[in-house]
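Hi R.,

Here's the chain you asked about this morning:
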Amino acid sequence: MYNLPVKKRCIIVGAGEFVPELFEKKEDDYVIAADGGYEYLKRCSAKPDLVIGDFDSLGRIPAGENVEVFPQRKDDTDLMLAAKRAVSRYMDPIVIHGALGNRTDHSFAAVQTLCFIARSNLHGFLIGRPFSMSVIQHGALEFDSSFDGMISVFALEKCSGVTIHGLEYCLDEAGLDIDCPVGVSNAFTGKEASVSVKNGLLLVLWESRSGQLPRFVDFD
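And here is the predicted structure, written out as C-alpha cells:
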C-alpha cells in the first residue's frame, strides 16, 4: 500500500507588515524566510530552515547553506517562491506572516498565492491585522465559539454550494460570484460557526483578535 508523506506545518514570513504577537512557531514547524522576512525571524529568535528570494527588501544576502538567491527580474514574487517550495514538499497547512500591509499590490498577490495553495489541494492562511484570511475550495472553515468581531466572505470566481452557519447572517447552498459582495461585514455571535463551499474559490477574512486559527474540513 502506498503511504503519503506525513504533512508538516510550514510557516512563511515575508517582508510586509509583521505582527509579532500573532506569530507562533512550534517545535516541528518548517520555517521559510522570504527575503525581508529573514529580519523578522531574527528579531523573534526563530531560525529559518530555508531563506529564499532576490533580497531587494532585505538589502543584503544572508550567509548560510540554506539560502537560495533569485534574480530581481523574475515571474514569481518571493512569497510565491516560498509557497511553491512548501507545496512541492507537501507541507500543510502553510501559515504566512508578513505578506499584507500598505502595499496593496503585494497584498493582492498574496491572496493569489492563497489561491495557488488551495488549488494545490493544501491549506493556507495569511496572518495580519486587522484581518487574517484563507481561501477554501470544496471544503469548510470551522470557527469555535471564542472567535469574535467581523468576518467577511468573497467569491473569487463563480462559487456554488456556499453555506454559512453560526454567524449573524447565514446562507444555505447559495451561489456567489465575483461581482456580488453580499458576504461583506458579517459577524461572529459567540457560537461555533462555519463557512463552506462546494465549488469555486472562496476568500474568508476574519478579525485577528489572537493567533488562533480556524480548522479546515475537506469534503470528499
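One quick note: Residues 51 and 67 are 5 Å apart (CA to CA).

Cheers,
M.
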